[in-house]
Design a protein that fits this description.
By secondary structure, this protein is mainly beta. 3% of the residues lie in helices and 41% in strands. It folds into two domains: 60-234, Methylamine Dehydrogenase, Chain H (7 Propeller), CATH 2.130.10; 259-402, Regulator of chromosome condensation 1/beta-lactamase-inhibitor protein II (Methylamine Dehydrogenase, Chain H). The strands form seven sheets. It has a five-stranded antiparallel beta sheet with strand order 5-6-7-9-8, with no helix packed on it.
Length: 402
């Protein structure tokens, strides 16, 4: 069974409805309607030029966007972006949607990129050094943030197959991609979202729209159809399984996929998890669907340096640079063999309800979790992936060339 037949954009339409959502053509307030910086957007016939020469050395990976899974993008050390994989909805940013690309390919007209994010709905956005944002891929629900006047059709769906400047959105310091929403945090601490309604906004918008009541924000992470928000004073606002939960102000959250469970690291190097426990992804030794773990539990790890959650599994980097994972092992997402089975959202699957060590990968600096796969960026800047994030579908960690 190909799991991608009904995922990404088709799953989005099943949840939101093609044409069923009310799209509100809303322009941003005066602070966002000022003329953008004097750069040249790809849709106006040219490409911006880097303000400084690129590194003489061959660029290496510094960040990955893997939420859409079969279409992955890497931020390189020279400020460019490379993408590979499925291109049904123009999500590789190459200006077309007719050909899948299996080799990493540089996205044209992207320079001085500082962050790249993707959503489960086949859209990708980049944040640039000058504080501007560009998006591409599906534009259903307005996920590209640029309205619909210039839309193309990718397999009959609205799309922007080339990176397009989100005009007027300036001074952006953080980007987040959700299931059906993309959001930006501006330097003044305000939050602006586009696509499907999120963070208590009442309607959809194909252009950035300020989220009322949010000020002094420094970052936010997708959690299901909502977000976890961090404020300048250190406190969090977290909505998991449609319930506000308490996250300690001294906790550390890392980048994560749009999911309905949450794990965070405490200063003593331990981890706490809570939320929906399908597939055993909370790590408390059990599994249930439906079933919510409403009080934070300790999966038993010590000396944790970082913890990241995916849609159906979780992983942590330990002090010695090794990795432990738990949750669903569908398609080899955990990187090791399991004998347990767990109740999942749609079916029973292989799983691990407690953390297990991932063999064959060490000196890990960052982790990136997709739906049924995992990638590790090592200190030597090599990338190792397993499960559905591996181009070869390796069930154990294997190097990936970017």
């Amino acid at each position: 069974m190909n799991p991608w037949t009904t995922l990404t954009l088709l799953g989005l339409l099943g949840a939101a409805g093609c044409g069923a959502a009310t799209v509100v053509q809303t322009t941003a307030d005066a602070s966002l309607s000022d003329a953008p910086p004097p750069d040249v957007a790809p849709d106006s016939g040219g490409c911006p030029v880097p303000s400084a020469p690129r590194d003489a050395e061959a660029p290496s990976v510094v960040d990955l966007a893997v939420a859409e899974q079969l279409s992955q993008c890497a931020l390189m050390s020279d400020g460019t972006v490379r993408c590979r994989g499925r291109n049904l909805f123009g999500q590789l940013g190459l200006g077309r949607s007719d050909t899948d690309i299996h080799e990493p390919t540089t996205v044209p007209c992207l320079v001085e990129v500082e962050q790249v994010v993707s959503s489960h709905s086949a859209s990708t956005c980049t944040r640039h050094r000058d504080g501007t944002v560009r998006c591409w891929g599906t534009n259903v629900l307005g996920l590209a943030g640029v309205g619909h006047d210039g839309d193309e059709r990718c397999n009959s769906f609205r799309c922007r197959p080339a990176p397009t400047l989100v005009r007027g959105l300036t001074e952006v310091v953080f980007l987040a991609g959700g299931r059906r929403t993309n959001c930006a945090v501006r330097r003044d601490g305000s939050v602006w979202c586009w696509g499907n309604s999120a963070l208590a906004t009442s309607s959809d918008s194909p252009t950035p729209r300020v989220v009322p009541g949010y000020r002094d924000v420094v970052a936010l992470w997708p959690r299901g159809d909502d977000f976890v928000v961090r404020f300048r004073d250190g406190h969090y606002e977290a909505n998991v399984f449609r319930r506000m939960i308490d996250v300690p102000s001294d906790a550390t959250l890392e980048g994560a996929a749009a999911t309905d469970h949450l794990c965070y690291r405490l200063p003593d190097g331990t981890v706490r998890c809570l939320g929906t426990n399908a597939d055993g992804k909370v790590g408390n030794g059990s599994s249930a669907w439906p079933g919510d773990v409403t009080e934070a539990v300790d999966p038993g790890l010590r000396g944790v340096r970082s913890v990241v959650t995916g849609s159906y599994h979780s992983c942590a980097i330990l002090a010695d640079g090794t990795v432990s994972c738990w949750g669903s092992n569908d398609y080899g997402a955990l990187g090791f063999t399991t004998t347990q089975t767990c109740a999942g959202i749609s079916r029973t699957s292989e799983c691990a309800t407690r953390p297990g060590v991932v063999p064959g990968v060490d000196h890990v600096a960052q982790l990136f979790l997709g739906i049924w796969g995992t990638c590790a960026l090592r200190l030597d800047r090599s990338v190792w992936c397993w499960g559905e994030l591996s181009p070869t579908r390796s069930m154990v960690p294997a190097p990936v060339d970017w």
